[in-house]
Design brief:
By secondary structure, this protein is α/β, with parallel strands linked by helices. It has three domains: about 90 residues, DNA Binding (I), subunit A (Orthogonal Bundle); about 160 residues, Fumarase C, Chain B, domain 1; about 220 residues, 3-Layer(aba) Sandwich (Rossmann fold). It is built from 28 helices and 20 strands. A seven-stranded parallel sheet has the order 3-4-2-5-12-1-13, with helices on both faces. A seven-stranded parallel sheet has the order 16-17-15-18-19-14-20, with helices on both faces. It is globular.
């Protein structure tokens, strides 16, 4: 059977427009061992395309597929498509495993929030100690691990069940809980034989975790096809992964830890732990007052409520620290080593007590080691105060995500895809991918007449204009309330930030909405948010009880959630979601100007376009969906290159009504 015929055997659905072309592009990239970056509209079937093409190649050339996702919801979608492929092909070699971190899969952590919130290193230590106890003492340690070791038949049955049913990570964890067996340990066994492994980004881009994953797989990097889903998230994810911060909250936690476990001297008795932490606390406050607030003559603070961060000289913190301690750089290195050692001892104490082995003093040592040795050509150092004085921090912020992408050049091939990835050259350049990387943009396969995108030119969320013209906010709300109250359609209103959303809420505007209103809140837990979304969706069930959902662009609702058919028919975007002009943002723009000559395009315009496209992309998920999107900002005209159907409306409600009437007629 030729390659194309074999791939057709795997593809489980009638191909849509562009899908054959996408699969051909993927196949050619795999054969040529060239990276591939492509954009294809939301709902166009990217996941099943890349799986069918990559599986065909992997089966023929004895490769394995690591499929990385940003969220658990995206991971579930991959497993569902893999099931469809397996069912269509009846190919027993198509076997996939979904993996999540210990925080999600550890059954001991289910009812213990402290354990759930541990980082990878802390959870690994906790798990290792529990396993050691389970082996050495019959009634201590992790009972789920003890069952894993002692109940071989039960483990084998679970593995066979997983092979036959391809469960999601959540489904597999639930099945293991019923059998009282550790799902994480069984997962590690199953990965060895799996053709597809679906993991969060951290499993690939955190080097220490990646080493473990490849050990479980028992393969070399060149035998891996790496797929990066929702790839527009990856640059920011890598910047955060390779950044580090020290907050006053963390230093106060260090002081509490010293009170509880003892307050030894550091560096041959030169200073105690608590004295050292208090000096750091005071230095952070001084840096905040000097660089963020600004200090006028007489000690008066020139507070600018809009300013929340500032650049600081790269050696400012350690110079101030050495000056206050009247010591040398060598002694500071000794202090850092002592913090490490003391912190490790505290970790051991907590471990023996069955607690999460977290030590803030150990983390302090790690931060200071990083801060004093980081290469400043790819970083900036900041003093940040986003909590109105409650928790200022210093931060070493990574400007260049490519420092974490060596793995992309080591695997057989990497495939990067998203519904909102333009400009593709910015993504390629940011990750340090080679210039010969294959790139492609595939238009939406759905009828263009099913969607309208309007913008208006008499409002904006630009700060300077809002300050000058007080009529803009009421006019903008007139549009929002008019849309929500006139059209009995499920409507999502997306704001550029929680601050903008709360501004309308505080002014009492929400009371004017004459329909059921759901509002996303910043402090909502994931379960609370999912309940909110579920209730909103249920209002689009055709009974006429439609609703409005107020949310934030780029937030948790903006991607990874489907709103098919009547669950969402109108999307309103309140203003352009440009990044805030913080010191961090200016540093990023300056860096990209120096490196690529495209600071504004790469760090301001493109991210704003992606957020708007994500909000618009919620509307159309299949061939039968219809919807209208509205951008309430005259600056939308700058984004024609990204949003090609964009058109200005002088009579917004009338234009929307005309489209809605056409929609109603088409359904008759």
């Amino acid at each position: 059977m030729v390659f194309a015929e074999w791939m057709a055997q795997l593809f489980p659905y009638p191909p849509r427009q562009n899908q054959n072309e996408i699969m051909q592009q993927i196949t050619e990239a795999l054969r040529q061992r060239r990276q591939l970056v492509f954009e294809s509209g939301t709902g166009s079937g990217k996941t099943v395309c890349v799986l069918a093409a990559a599986l065909t190649y992997a089966l023929e050339h004895q490769k394995k597929i690591i499929y990385t996702t940003r969220t658990n919801a995206q991971q579930q979608q991959v497993i569902h498509e893999l099931r469809a492929i397996q069912h269509k092909s009846k190919e027993n070699r198509i076997y996939g495993v979904g993996m999540q971190g210990r925080g999600n899969m550890c059954l001991l952590a289910r009812d213990n929030p402290e354990i759930q919130n541990g980082n990878a290193e802390e959870l690994s230590r906790f798990c290792s100690y529990q396993k050691k106890l389970a082996v050495s003492e019959k009634r201590k340690g992790c009972g789920y691990y003890r069952c894993f070791l002692g109940e071989k038949d039960r483990v084998e049955r679970l593995m066979q069940w997983a092979r036959n049913h391809l469960p999601t990570a959540e489904e597999f964890t639930e099945a293991c809980e019923k059998q009282a067996v550790c799902p994480y340990e069984i997962n590690k066994l199953m990965v060895h034989d799996a053709l597809v492994v679906v993991v969060p980004y951290v499993y690939v881009f955190d080097k220490s975790i990646r080493i473990k994953l490849f050990d479980w797989l028992s393969i070399s990097e060149e035998d891996v096809i790496l797929i990066v889903d929702e790839a527009h998230n990856l640059p920011d994810y890598l910047r955060e992964l390779f950044s580090a911060e020290l907050s006053t909250w963390m230093l106060n936690s260090c002081l509490t830890e010293a009170e509880q476990y003892g307050n030894p001297s550091l560096a041959d008795g030169r200073i105690s732990v608590t004295a050292f932490c208090k000096e750091l606390l005071e230095i952070i406050m001084v840096l905040r007052d000097t660089y963020v607030y600004g200090v006028l003559e007489g000690g008066i603070r020139a507070i600018n409520p809009e300013k929340t961060d500032a650049l600081i000289p790269s050696h400012e913190l350690e110079v101030e620290l050495l000056s206050r301690l009247k010591t040398t750089s060598k002694t500071l290195r000794d202090i850092i080593s002592d913090l490490y050692a003391y912190g490790e001892k505290i970790q051991e104490y907590k471990q023996k007590d069955g607690k999460l082995p977290r030590s803030y003093l150990h983390n302090l040592g790690a931060f200071l080691s990083f801060w004093t040795t980081v290469e400043m050509d790819q970083y900036i150092k900041l003093i940040v105060d986003t909590g109105q004085g409650r928790n200022p921090r210093v931060e070493a912020y990574c400007l260049d995500p490519s420092i974490g992408t060596d793995i992309l050049r080591e695997v057989h091939c990497s495939i990067h895809m998203s519904g909102t990835l333009e400009p593709l050259d910015e993504y390629r350049d940011s990750l340090g991918l080679p210039l010969e990387t294959r790139i492609g943009v595939y238009p939406s396969p759905f009828p263009p007449e099913n969607r309208k995108i309007f913008f208006v030119s008499d409002v904006t969320t630009r700060y300077d204009e809002l300050m000058k013209d007080k009529s803009i906010i009421p006019q903008m709300w007139k549009y929002v309330s008019g849309i929500c109250n006139r059209f009995e359609k499920n409507t999502m209103v997306s704001f550029p930030s929680y601050n903008t959303l709360s501004m309308f809420q505080k002014n009492g505007y929400f009371a004017e909405i004459q329909r059921c209103l759901y509002v996303e809140e910043q402090r909502m837990t994931q379960s609370e948010l999912m309940n909110l979304v579920t209730e909103f969706k249920s209002c689009g069930d055709g009974t006429g009880n439609t609703a409005a959902l107020f949310t934030v662009m780029g937030g948790r609702i903006s991607e990874g959630m489907d709103f098919p058919a009547e669950q969402l028919e109108i999307a309103v975007i309140v203003g352009i979601p440009y990044p805030k002009p913080t010191a961090r943002q200016r540093g990023l723009q300056t860096y990209y100007d120096a490196k690529f000559g495209k600071g504004w395009e790469y760090t301001v315009q493109a991210p704003a376009a992606r957020k708007m496209l994500q909000a618009i992309g919620r509307l159309i998920r299949n061939e039968n969906d219809r919807g209208v999107a509205v951008i309430l900002d005259k600056r939308a005209s700058r984004f024609h290159q990204y949003i090609k159907e964009l058109q200005e409306s002088k009579e917004l409600l009338s234009d929307m009504n005309r489209f809605m009437n056409q929609q109603s007629s088409s359904k008759k």
